[in-house]
Write a structure and sequence with these properties.
384 residues; alpha/beta; Rossmann fold; four-stranded mixed β-sheet; 15 helices; 15% strand
Amino acid sequence: MKKIILLGSTGSVGVQTLDIASKMKNDVCVVGLSARLNISLLKRQIKKFKPKAVCLENASDAANLQKWLCENKIKTEVYSGKDGLEKLAVLPEADTVVSAIVGSAGLNPVLKAIEAKKNISIANKEALVTAGAHIMSLAEKNGVKILPVDSEHSAIFQCLIGEKKERIKKILLTASGGPFYNYKGDFSKITVEQALNHPTWKMGKKITVDSATLMNKGLEAIEASVLFDIAIDKIEIVIHPQSIIHSMVEYVDGSVIAQMSNPDMKLPIQYALTYPDRNISGVKPLNLTQVSKLEFYEPDFAKFPCLKLAYAAAKRGFTMPAVMSAANEAAVAAFLNKEIKFTDISKIVEKTMKAHKTKKTNKFEDYIEASDWAKKRAERQLAH
């Protein structure tokens, strides 16, 4: 039985992970849960899964939850804040941490979990973008597996099984194109509501906006480079609106291996939990005779400057990806709060990157310092 700690249990990936866990009661045990604001949903999850411990961001929310647990005679420990999240991530009863926290907040608990020799199922791409080299090195040192939860990286992972790195010619990372790939209107007038209306996937707000700017695909390209130890120049993005092919790997002999399925995040989540086994998922089987067409286009880097910025950060390397990711996180938060225009997101990221002097380092502390600097720098731009 796999015993998991789920960081970000009330988000989209978290909810789907627990849905899978409920259907695999004999194979998956939920040891810990963390949430940020959705306490009512967390309470329902606690009642159903009876975890050993949970963590909330706010101490007062944690105190109120503790009172509720006592009233309901539920013996679940409650932690709070960053320290609580790290404490949750290393619970000795668990063997796997599913990281579904959005943004840089997911970095430290993942590192603590790796140090505690927990396997990681990762949906938090910002952690790998910020300090990917450090995470992968630490995982290797501790004999820890890092398994991707994102559909694209799960697809690549599956396409690489049994192959050698030197046989890879390139990775073809697919993208739906988001809601604006064929948009003919004024991008500066795009509203939050429009940006959150993704045509294929139902996700959290931050990742949905990133998908609209195509920054998400830039982050995924960097994540793929880190996870599979492949140069960024060998990762090619292909717009595929139907989201049937989740990614491909081209080999030196000209063969292209693809992983296909109907778009459903439960499939890669479950595979990360059951690897190397495969279980019945309940996902609707793919019927190719009912698929009217599969389309593929080149990405428009001019129309979606965030994509260009992500590749530029990856090529610069060292602290620049951390800066790019943190600036984007701050800008997206401002857009969601309706403080800036959609087109301002890329402008803020670009200005922050231009102001940063890349530090050639492999030290974790330098990545964090660069990330913190970038967030503050971006926020200062927002204030003007």
